[in-house]
Structure prediction request, 159 residues.
Amino acid sequence: MAILESGRIYPPGLRGIELIHVEARDAKLALWAMEEGLRCSGLSGVIGELWGDPATLDFTATRRLAVAAEQSGVPCWLVRMAGTANLSGARMRWRIASSPSIANSLDSRAPGASAWDAELFRAQGYQPGRWSIANEAGAFHLVAPAGGGTLEESERRRA
Prediction:
């Protein structure tokens, strides 16, 4: 269902990044493939997309992913679409939603750079917060709201 709703990754858009795409028929197999990928320290990262609230996606499954990522040093992102917030072993939990584009500096009536609303609602050692993520000049960056701060500032306050 995740592929039907959001489509597949477009490899040419990744500019030279090598990609291994695994399509699983259910959440149990997707979680297994993610965990196996995390055991391979030669990978740059593992991204998994799941739809809804499958029974196999419980605290134990997310904890296994977190431990495997920590042991191998391979970052892991589990993208959940149309799911409800529940217990998770994830170290950071974000809610990401679309946001109005950044103003176009050349024409105020034209769409500007794409942007998303990002809410860090649970993380070990970080303050919850909300930021805008902007894609300007081909690079993503966090833009702090008024009176907010960056995730890096949050990290410095933690230390």
In short: The chain has a mean pLDDT of 85.
